[in-house]
Amino acid sequence: MIRLQKCEKYIDWLEPLHDIAKEETGLSDFGDSSYLTGLKVILESLDKECDLNELGKYAAPMKLTHMLKQRLLAEQAFKDKPELLDVEIKKPILITGMVRTGSTALHYLMARDPNRQHLEYWLGENPQPRPARDTWDSNENFQNSKNNLEMMYEVSPNLKAIHFMAADWPEECGHLMAQTFTDDYWQCGRRAPHYNEWYETADLVPTYTQHKKLLQLIGSNEPDKPWLLKYPVHMKHLKSFLTVYPDAQVIWTHRDPAVVMSSYVSLIEGFRSIS
After folding, report:
1. CA atoms within 13 A on the CB side of 164
2. Does residue 1 surpass a pLDDT of 70?
3. How confident is the model at residue 6 (pLDDT cuts 50, 70, 90)?
4. Structural contact between residues 164 and 156, judged by C-beta atoms closer than 8 angstroms
5. Is the pTM above the cut of 0.90?
């Protein structure tokens, strides 16, 4: 990304990142512009508090560009098939609570129910109508997600034991929320006090509005199958979540907070060691 190397500050990436995303997709409509606020704060935070290693300096623009590309692709999908936005999301089940409280184990168990649909890792990373399972291995997006996970675990082996993920396994909603640049991801992987201060009081209704649109897109081939969702982060934004999903059914997992804290610190250490 030569154009980014010419930028003196991360905030100067704002326009080049958009240009790269547009060039790589051939598209130009990013949808609701409210996402720009979070993106600008992330770039400001990188300028104010940047302590990225060499891999982090490479990964940051790649991640930001990927999210912008996914916004472009999703908006085009809605233009091609406006009826996607008519797909109803009725009474989704949400598993939430403090991190490291067994919510992942519960999620994996409940996702075995064939009468409900869940978010697979690769579709969270690359939102699109869920194709037939027997086509996934030949799907470039699926293979890219497998490779991304393998690389992450190679760089930070401890993460595999702490929180194992696979491209075709049930996944949290973080990738969807990251499209609006309002998610814990942007503060868990690096020091980001400036971003934290903004994010903790941000209005997440636009985030969940985009989240819902992406679920409508992903589940459009099975519109009548209800959703199972899981993400601890939803707990601290529950008011905004319920504004968009007023009939959601919430499962709240619990564990001794002292144990949770030490376990969570180990998880964050694993993610931060990458970048």
Report:
1. 6
2. no
3. confident
4. no
5. yes
Q: Is 242 exposed, middle or buried (0-12, 13-18, 19+ CB in 10 A)?
A: middle
Taking residue 214's Cβ as centre, other Cβ atoms within 10 Å add up to 23
Contact indicator for 231, 174 with CB cutoff of 8 Å: yes
pLDDT over 70 at 164, yes or no? yes
Enter the tokens of residue 90: 């009725």
Q: Residue 160: what pLDDT? A: 86
**Among the listed residues 1, 6, 70, 4, the one whose alpha carbon sits nearest the alpha carbon of residue 43:** 4
**Of residues 227, 46, 35, 58, the one with CA closest to residue 155:** 58
Rounded to the nearest angstrom, the gap between the alpha carbon of residue 182 and the centroid of all alpha carbons in its chain is 9
pLDDT greater than 70 at residue 2:
no
Q: Which of 177, 214, 215 is nearest to 199 (CA)?
A: 177
4 Cβ contact list (under 8 Å, min separation 6): 13, 16, 17, 61
